[in-house]
Amino acid sequence: MTVFVLVPGAWKGAWAYEHVVPLLERAGHTAHALTLTGLRPDDEPAVVATAGLDTHASDVLRLLDRTGATGVTLVGHSYAGLVVAAAADRAAGRVARLVHLDAYVPDDGDSCWSSTNAHFREVFAAGAADTGYSVAPPGHRGDPRRRPHPLASFLQTVRLTGAHARVPRREFVYCAGWEDRTPFTGLRDRLLTDPGWRVHTLPTGHDAMREDPEAVAALLLDAGKGDGPTLRSDRIPVRR
Prior knowledge:
Layout: E1 3-7, H1 21-26, E2 30-33, H2 45-50, H3 53-67, E3 72-77, H4 80-90, E4 95-101, H5 112-115, H6 118-127, E5 134-135, E6 149-150, H7 151-155, E7 169-175, H8 185-192, E8 198-202, H9 208-211, H10 213-221, E9 233-235
Parallel strand pairs: 1-2, 1-3, 3-4, 4-7, 7-8, 8-9
Antiparallel strand pairs: 5-6
Helix pairs in contact: 3-4
C-alpha cells in the first residue's frame, strides 16, 4: 500500500483532487488531499495575510507527523511544486517519490514569482490590487470554489538544503494542452536531459485532475520499473 499526499495549486483546496482520490483508494492505497493554510473557507484575513511558502510546507509536514506515514508519494500541482520540494527537503527521508504535476521545480532561492512567466506575474499583481495580501482567482470562468490565494506564498523564496534531490524517484508531468500560456515548457525541456528525473506528458490543460482524473490516477499508480531513476517521456492519452 502506498500513501499519497496530494497538494493543490494556487486558489484551490483538497477538492481539486476529489475525482482522483477515490481512484487511488479503489486500488487499495491511502490518499490525503490537503487544503493549505489561507485557502480554508474559515481562515481569517490575518491568517491569509501571513501564510507563506514555509507555512504551506509545514502543512504537509504536520500531515506526515500526524499520520506517521513513510515511503510517501508526494504530489504537488502548479504552485505546490515549490511546497512539495520544501516539504520533502525537511521530511527526513519519509518521502519516496515526488511528483510535480505541471508544477514548478525550484532550486534553492527560487520563488513562484521568480519561476513563472510574465503572464502569471501580471495575474498575481492584478489579483492582489484589492487587498494587497491575497490574490483573487483569475478570470470569471473555472471552478467557483476557487479562493483568494496568499500573496506572500508566491513571493517567498524556497530554502532547500539538497535533501529533496535525494528522494529516490522524482517525476515531472507536463500538461501539453495549454501551450499558449504554460510557464513549464522550458522546465520540461531541461528535465528531459536530466537523468535524475522521469518526464511524462499529458495532453490535457493545466487542471489535469479535473479534465482527466483517470489518466492522473493511472500515472500515479504506475510504480515504474527498475531500481534507479530513468529518463523517459510518456504521453498518457486522455480518456473520454
